[in-house]
Amino acid sequence: MRPNERTTTPLATRINIPEGSREQVAAGLNKVLATLSDLHAQTKFAHWNVRGPNFIALHKLFDELAELVEELVDEVAERVTALGGGAQGTLRSAEEHSDLDDFPDGVFDGMEVVAALSERYGQAGNACRGGIDLADEVEDVGTVDLLTVAGRKLDQALYFLDAHLR
Questions:
Q1: b/e 75-86 (16+ beta carbons within 10 angstroms → b)
Q2: Sequence spans of domains, the chain
């Protein structure tokens, strides 16, 4: 364990989901949190570095998408803590646990950046859907709802990105 990481000792809560189930869901949510934190950083990277004839439109789109993902990061982290877990939202944790591919080196051209982000938004949406089954299995409807909404928002963002490519 790294010095700044929390232990898995659950925090007190009155949520009536058994402790073991809450710990499992919190661990799954921390994986989603890592992926979303990585997605936020990669979206900001794209926002800062995109170039080309569609610069201003893409620059603004990527900033809007980064804001959306930042909100999802906060919601997922708060759900982890509501379940009695510790939100592992550090950059180091994101690097270690994210489901995303690294942003490709040397990609700055507008449509290449859109394609790279599109791939990562698809991966992040899949990560959210992957957490739904576990939460549903332990009857954690709050987490199911959270991940369903997050997946739907990421799917819409993916649609906005893919619309530039087809």
A1: bbbebbebbbbb
A2: 19-162
CA distance 86 to 80: 6
Q: Which two tokens stand for residue 161?
A: 């990105």
Single-letter code of the amino acid located at 130: G
Residues in the chain: 166
Could you report the per-residue pLDDT of 18-63, keeping only the tens digit for each? Answer: 999 999 999 999 999 999 999 999 999 999 999 999 999 999 999 9
Q: What is the mean pLDDT of the chain?
A: 94
Instruction: With beta carbons less than 8 A apart as the criterion, state whether 94 and 149 touch.
Output: no
CA distances, 159 to each of 79, 102, 164 (Å): 26, 21, 9
Please name the CATH architecture into which domain 19-162 falls: Up-down Bundle (1.20)
CA–CA separation, 112 vs 141, rounded Å?
38
Pairwise CA distance, residues 74 & 115, whole Å: 26
Report the C-alpha gap between 120 and 100 in whole angstroms: 6
Q: Is residue 149 over pLDDT 70?
A: yes
Which residues face 51 on adjacent strands?
Answer: 109
